[in-house]
Design a protein that fits this description.
By secondary structure, the chain is an alpha/beta fold. The protein is built from 13 helices and 11 strands.
């Protein structure tokens, strides 16, 4: 697993560089006609140089210190698997320009790309997964709720009639779990073009009353979790950059309007989101060297999603019980209060977030930005 997870992004980057477009690279299958000995290479940079010189087909077998590893690429996961099974060594062909000035539709900017969405089994995460799949991306549904991620992936694959989504278990607050999640991605499809760090939690409460354990829980998932996701997604993207230096990749944090203006009696959440924007700007400065853009989307309240609507743990219940909304007697009172704060008169929806994601991916000249999607509730100056 370690060899495959290390080598696959280098191979995939070479194929991207040769064709000018994304692809899926699977490991295993038959030995390819092109066999490259990398046992004498000192490090991954040496391997990258050798691959850039010698890879000219959709199939390549690498001779490593631990044995032989074969890699097969194509435009989709199922097509790459067919190549691996048949040993199809057709030469690489340039398939499209990749010039975003000529993309006919904004959602086409993710077509053929490999994406991962944390917290992808429900809420905004599910909306993002569905939107990316509908736009032609291959999407990993990453969630601590593995059963939910599996159900969603199964539905999407059945609807598409091919493999377009894959569930992967991951607890972003746990480093070993996060590292394993991204190793699975690299080993299964060769790399990553878009990582949407969406997983997040809320524990509302007064600073005078909130338990420290609840504050730490929110910080671990929302703040440290984004650090860990960026750390391991960024490593894969950096490897791809060694063999595809012109290819841009994206890490996008789903932040919040609370990261722009604070949140009364919800300091743990707002603090983690403010901190997240500091990480976004800092990571953007560092990772731009590797062609990785790091940005954030700051949505307004997704009032129709499970985060708010859950009858036991939802924010409507939490805010009612914590007295956050003055005079509120019912959940309906809380909902009406939050809708009244939005100039456009409604909560944020999945499609609003998707449009921001497409913009960020399409815009190659921005990094370190926080894009508000709040219906006018937060206006930047």
């Amino acid at each position: 697993m370690e060899d495959v997870a290390m080598l696959a992004p280098l191979v995939r980057g070479t194929m991207i560089e040769r064709t000018g477009c994304p692809c899926v690279v699977v490991s295993g299958g038959k030995e390819a006609q092109t066999v490259i000995d990398v046992t004498a290479c000192a490090d991954e940079k040496d391997i990258a140089t050798k691959l850039m010189q010698e890879v000219s087909q959709w199939g390549v077998t690498l001779k490593t210190e631990t044995g032989m590893a074969s890699f097969w690429g194509d435009a989709s996961y199922d097509a790459a698997k067919r190549r691996a099974e048949s040993g199809d060594n057709a030469p690489l062909q340039h398939r499209k320009s990749g010039d975003l000035r000529h993309v006919p539709n904004r959602d086409d900017v993710v077509r053929g790309k490999v994406a991962l969405v944390t917290g992808g089994a429900q809420g905004f995460g599910e909306e993002i997964v569905r939107g990316l799949v509908a736009s032609g991306a291959f999407v990993f549904v990453a969630d601590v709720n593995f059963a939910g991620a599996t159900r969603l992936a199964d539905v999407l694959n059945a609807e598409a009639g091919e493999t377009v989504a894959f569930p992967v278990e991951g607890n972003v607050a746990n480093e070993a779990s996060t590292e394993a999640m991204f190793a699975t991605v690299a080993a299964m499809v060769g790399g990553l073009d878009l990582c949407v760090s969406n997983a997040g939690v809320v524990k509302a409460g007064s600073v005078l009353e909130q338990e420290t354990k609840d504050f730490e829980f929110v910080t671990d998932v929302n703040y440290i979790g984004f650090f860990l996701v960026t750390k391991y997604a960024g490593r894969i993207m950096r490897q791809q950059h060694l063999t595809a230096p012109k290819w841009k990749t994206d890490i996008i944090q789903i932040n919040s309007k609370s990261g722009l203006e604070g949140s009364n009696k919800n300091g743990a959440y707002a603090g983690s989101k403010f901190g997240g924007l500091g990480l976004v700007a800092s990571f953007a400065m560092e990772l731009v060297t590797y062609g990785i853009k790091v940005n954030a989307v700051c949505p307004g309240n997704f009032l129709g999603g499970p985060l708010w609507m859950d009858p036991v743990k939802g924010l409507f219940v939490q805010y009612l019980n914590s007295g956050k909304v003055p005079g509120a007697k019912t959940i309906e009172d809380v909902k009406a209060f939050y809708e009244s704060k939005v100039p456009m008169g409604r909560g944020c929806e999945g499609v609003d977030v998707m449009r921001a994601i497409y913009y960020i991916v399409e815009q190659e000249y921005e990094t370190g930005q926080a894009v508000p999607v709040t219906g006018g509730q937060v206006m930047l100056h």
